Each structure stands twice: as C-alpha cells, then as structure tokens.
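Milestone 3.1: sequence recovery, worked example.
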C-alpha cells in the first residue's frame, strides 16, 4: 500500500467510525426523536472546536460471538472542545453500537478524558444513552463502571461535572451521574433506575411503567435525583452551556466576570410593597429574585423539587452568585427534609467552586409532624446548617419577613459566619410566632380565664406586646446580629456593595482530612 492509499484508508476508516453502528441504527435513533452521539457533541460545543480521541478503539471481547462484530470507537465518542471559548472535556455514549452498553474499552476511553479534564482543570460533560453493562464482558464491564465512579469521586469539588441523560440509564450506570454535580433529563426519552420494571414486578409484585419508575418527571419532581428537566435534547445542550457560563473551570479559579449594563444602584419601588400586611399571606420570592439580579436573569436548579426553597444562579454586577431563598408561595416556605437537603447540596457546590452565596430568608420554621421526624428532619436540617457553617465563600443574607426558631439559625445567620446580614423593616426575627409564643408564655393565665371574650382580649393584648418587642429586626440589630436594616427598594445596591467589600475575603477552615457531614 503506497502513501496515497494509506491516506485514503485513513479517510475511509474515519468515515466508518463516524457512522457508529451504521446508517440503519442511526435512522432508528432519529425515529425515536433522539440524536446520535456526534450530533449531540456538535450541538453542545462551539462550532468546529471538537477534537475527538480514541476513534479507532475497538472492544477486546471474544465471548458469545462478539469477536465477529466490532465497531470503531466501540460505543462512546470522547474528546475535548470549547464552550464559549472555554475548554471542556466530553464523552457521549453511542446507542447505535451495542445499545451504548459499557465495555472495558469504553470505560477506558471515558476514564482517559476524565483524567485529562482533571489534569488540565476543565469541566467534564457526560452524555448518557446506554443499555447498561455489556453482559458478554462480565466482570470487566463492572470494573469499568467502578473505574469511572472513582474518577467522579476524585473530581468532585475540583472540576464541574455535568451529566445529561438523553436515553436509558439503568443499573450500575446510574451511579456515575449521581456522583456528578448536575443531572439533566429529557422528557419522554430518558429514564434512570437501579432495577427496571420487570425486576420490580418479579421481586415485589409492583406493576409499574418505565416512565413512572424512573422518568424525568419522577426524578425532577419526586426523588430530586435530576436537577433539570428539559423538553428535548436541543434545549438540554443550550441549558448545559448556560449553566457552565456561571461556573469556573475548576476550584482554583473564579467564574467568568460578565460585562454588566444593569445599573447597580437601580431602585425598585415595587419591593417596598412586596410583603403583604398580613404575615400569613404568601408572595412569590421569585419576583424578588428577578427584580434584584442583573437583567432579571435567574437559572433555577431543582425547579420542580422541594419547591418550598429556591436555589439557582444569577449575577450581581456581572459576578456569578448562588442564590438560596425560602419560597412563601409553597408550604409557607417551611424547611422540610427535601428542602434542607436540596439547599445544603447547592451551598456546598457554590462553596467548592468559589461562588458567593446570597440567602433570602422568609422561613416560619421546620415542618412539624411524625412524618418529618421519622424521615430524619434532624439530620437533614443539620446538613444545611453544616453546609452554611462550613462555607468560606462570601455570604450575604437578607431577611425579608419571618425568621423563626432553629430555622433562623440554619439560614446563614451571623453565627454561622454570615458576612453581611441585612433585614428589611418587615423582618420578624424571633424564637417563634407571636400566637405560639403567648400560648407558651401565658399558658396558665389563659387556662384560668373562663370567659372567652376576656380570653381573646387578653391574648390579643399579649400578642401585640410580643409583636412590638420581637416581630421586627431591631432587637437582632441591637445585638449586632443584623448589620443593617435596609429599605427594600435598595436591596440590589446593598447586596452588590456587600459582595464588592468581600472580594478579598480569606477564611480557612481547621486542617482536617475531611469533615463528617451528617449524611
């Protein structure tokens, strides 16, 4: 074979590799409303930036006749490229090759790009579309999963890791996405579960569909496994690009600073009227968030899960910021097991990647009841407490209305090293609400009053007395636990100035191997 023929052979092999499992299987993938691995990568990365690695790798299995069927690339496309000019590493499982099932060589390809991402301090994005372990390979396939898991663990908190579930993800395959920072699922075409409907039926007798067991709605709304649910793959890749724009390349860098044309001293008079006069009436905390952030842009994480708390990314004067906020519009904004866990994980992510945290507080307490106690509300609430107390990034807290009891402590109070703690004049910072407090403080007196009208009058007087003393931010401000009481319409300006003052913050936690967060 002369040199010209060798070049032609290379070109032919590249064309063959790019067809994956062949045109028939590609057509089948398209018929399901799904893109191929390479199409997904092309949509995700900047045009023309993808550099593929290991295109000519094939499996090494000789069992069950598998040696007679080999495909270049062996079921996963790997490499690196750029998103908005910043380098990322990526792997995309190819369902057209053996259903995207994981082989020993597939795992080695994935591990190679993960190792390179760590070495170069760049995010890694995994696109999952796989039938699971390649059964013909037995334990080597399982070992391949474990190799990937170990790299997910070592990369955690060092480089951002994002998983897109654009098809099936079952059995051991689910644990790699679960170890990453964010999971995205598409409606209709994606699912995740440890054991499928058939196994569930045979073991427990439960008859359940694939969608009801592990679909996007289930994991985005009930289990909280998925952080984002998108309508289709096109929306999914755009959202990945958007999320990455708020993140640094690694834990030693800061997120990109974006030029801001939104005035930092923009006043919002609507905020002065945002809190209802009746303390039991709800309002939408998202309106507050959209009003104070740059250009009203807020990327919410876990939108459909634990809706009594809001977490997500925004910018203040171009600086990427994580926001945690109670949502009075849902369950009155109480903290429960799911909300505590959701917020704790987000706080720890922001702290790991040098992203400042703004906390907006309106919390009446923890959700009471045996259901919550049996589910471990003590441990889950402690997770959020731990996350805030451990975090060393700049932390600004604004209390809008209620901040009662243990929930006050948990929501980034001054004693958990909150840097600037502000309050609106509508804030109520106390051990509990007035009515409950008077029931405790004046219980004997109330029990001794037989006349209902007289009892109601006494109760009203004592509630008013308690409210005058405690249902305001000024007692906390008198102790220095609140740094300032601010006019609501000035919130954006005060928050930005606070974060500017914290740009050079340096806090180091005690030397340790690692903490023991109450999992």
């Amino acid at each position: 074979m002369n040199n010209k023929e060798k070049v032609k052979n290379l070109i032919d092999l590249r064309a063959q590799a790019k067809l994956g499992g062949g045109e028939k299987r590609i057509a089948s993938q398209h018929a399901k409303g799904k893109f191929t691995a390479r199409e997904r990568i092309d949509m995700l990365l900047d045009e023309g930036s993808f550099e593929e690695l290991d295109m000519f790798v094939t499996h090494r299995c000789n069992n069950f006749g598998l040696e007679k069927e080999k495909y270049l690339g062996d079921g996963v496309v790997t490499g690196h490229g750029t998103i908005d000019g910043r380098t990322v590493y990526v792997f995309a499982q190819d369902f057209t090759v053996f259903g995207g099932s994981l082989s020993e060589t597939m795992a080695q390809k994935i591990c190679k790009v993960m190792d390179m991402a760590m070495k170069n301090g760049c995010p890694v994005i995994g696109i999952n579309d796989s039938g699971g372990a390649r059964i013909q390979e037995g334990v080597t396939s399982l070992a391949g999963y474990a190799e990937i898991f170990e790299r997910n663990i070592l990369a955690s908190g060092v480089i951002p890791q994002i998983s897109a579930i654009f098809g099936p993800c079952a059995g051991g395959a689910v644990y790699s996405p679960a170890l990453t920072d964010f999971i995205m699922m598409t409606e209709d075409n994606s699912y995740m579960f440890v054991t499928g409907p058939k196994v569930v039926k045979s073991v427990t007798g439960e008859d359940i569909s694939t969608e009801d067991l592990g679909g996007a709605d289930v994991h985005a709304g009930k289990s909280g496994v998925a952080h984002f649910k998108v309508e289709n793959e096109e929306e999914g890749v755009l959202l990945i690009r958007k999320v990455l724009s708020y993140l640094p390349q690694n834990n030693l860098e800061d997120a990109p600073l974006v030029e801001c044309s939104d005035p930092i001293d923009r006043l919002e008079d609507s905020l002065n009227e945002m809190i209802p006069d009746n303390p039991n009436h709800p309002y939408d905390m998202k309106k507050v968030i959209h009003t104070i952030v740059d250009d009203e842009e807020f990327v919410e994480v876990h939108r459909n899960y634990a809706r009594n708390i809001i977490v997500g990314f925004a910018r203040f004067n171009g600086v990427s910021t994580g926001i945690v906020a109670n949502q009075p519009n849902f369950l009155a904004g109480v903290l429960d097991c799911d909300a505590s866990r959701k917020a704790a994980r987000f706080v720890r992510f922001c702290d790991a990647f040098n992203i400042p945290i703004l906390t907006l507080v309106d919390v009446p307490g923890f959700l009471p009841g045996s259901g919550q106690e049996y589910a471990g509300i003590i441990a889950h609430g402690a997770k959020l407490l731990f996350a805030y107390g451990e975090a060393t990034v700049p932390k600004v807290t604004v209390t809008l209305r209620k901040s009662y009891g243990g929930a006050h402590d948990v929501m980034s109070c001054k004693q958990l090293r909150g840097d600037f703690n502000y309050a609106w004049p509508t804030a109520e910072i106390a051990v509990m609400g007035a009515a409950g407090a008077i029931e405790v403080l004046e219980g004997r007196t109330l029990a001794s009053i037989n006349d209902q009208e007289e009892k109601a009058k006494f109760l009203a007087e004592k509630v008013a007395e308690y409210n005058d003393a405690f249902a305001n931010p000024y007692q906390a401000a008198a102790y220095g636990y609140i740094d300032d009481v601010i006019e609501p319409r000035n919130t954006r300006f005060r928050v930005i100035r606070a974060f500017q003052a914290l740009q050079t913050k340096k806090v180091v936690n005690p030397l340790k191997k690692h903490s023991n967060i109450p999992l």
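The chain has 20 helices and 17 strands. Residues 269-431+471-501 form a domain with the 2-enoyl-CoA Hydratase; Chain A, domain 1 fold (CATH 3.90.226.10).
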